[in-house]
Amino acid sequence: MSFARNDLERLADIVTIAADQEIMPRFRSLGEGAIREKTSALDLVTDADEAAEAAIKAAVAKAFPKAVFVGEESVEKDRGLLNKIAGADLAIIIDPVDGTSNFAWGLPLFGVLAAVVEHGATVGGIIYDPVGRDCTFALKGQGAWAKSESGTTRDIRVAKPTQLSNMTGTTSWYIMPEPLRSRVAANLAKVKASFGYRCAAYEYRIVAEGLVDFSLHYKLMPWDHAAGVLIHAEAGGYTALLDGNPYLPTIFEGGVISASNRECWQMLHDALLG
């Protein structure tokens, strides 16, 4: 792995500056025409998404000139960018505003996701909270940690394993196809509680920090999952696709479960999908 901790910090600085300059000034201040639908009322893009991605892309080109840049809004214009991830020596994958619907509605539950991929494998991850101005990091093989606005850092760990009836977690069952959608929605009664924040950045952050026991996501676009899956793994957790295979940022279909360990993953898989 050639991407080092100082490189990850530099990428986080790029993300932070873009959030300060392009995202937060627009929060609860979006004018007429600044919010647009992509595929539905829950799939939105705003001026903040586009401006932040443009700023991050320009800064990444200067800081990491050999990197392939894959941003959510860039892929809207060129789907072929997704095919470049697997073969790239270095790819940087960005979701400029994850939780766009929350952002557009004035809810402070959104974040910026950045993943670093080398030869098709995620080696670095960043989740940045523009409201709290703090950041969650991971480097492959080097653990996961959180950094506050003041610069204080602390290691993070997933929740201790527990039985199914005590588990709490986040799900995106509502975007699943039928009959899986109805089956999972009904089976969620088997866990203690489930939530949906419409923001993968927040959902991966709280499961990696052990605030909830699991997350269940569907629709595997790499800007939503690559960073969070690595952070969760480096915090001691276990993630796999619904078919049991490992998650990779080059897989774009299906779903993924993140849990405290392999045994908890299996319990959740059998209970929710069975």
Q: What shape does the CA trace take?
A: globular
Secondary-structure element pattern, one letter each: HEEHEHEHEEEEEEHEHEHEEH
End-to-end C-alpha gap: 39 Å
Question: How many DSSP H or I helices?
Answer: 8
Spatial ordering of strands, largest sheet? 3-4-5-6-7-8-9
What is the C-level CATH assignment of the largest domain? Answer: Alpha Beta
The H-level CATH homologous superfamily of the largest domain, spelled out, is Fructose-1,6-Bisphosphatase, subunit A, domain 1
Helix content: 25-40%
Reported by name, the CATH topology of the largest domain is: Fructose-1,6-Bisphosphatase, Chain A, domain 1
Tally of domains: 2
Q: Tell me the β content.
A: 25-35%
What structural class is derived from the secondary structure elements?
alpha+beta
Main sheet specs: 7 strands, mixed
Give the C-alpha Rg. 18 Å
Mean pLDDT, as a whole number? 95
Poorly predicted runs: none
How many strand segments?
Answer: 14
CATH architecture of the largest domain: 2-Layer Sandwich
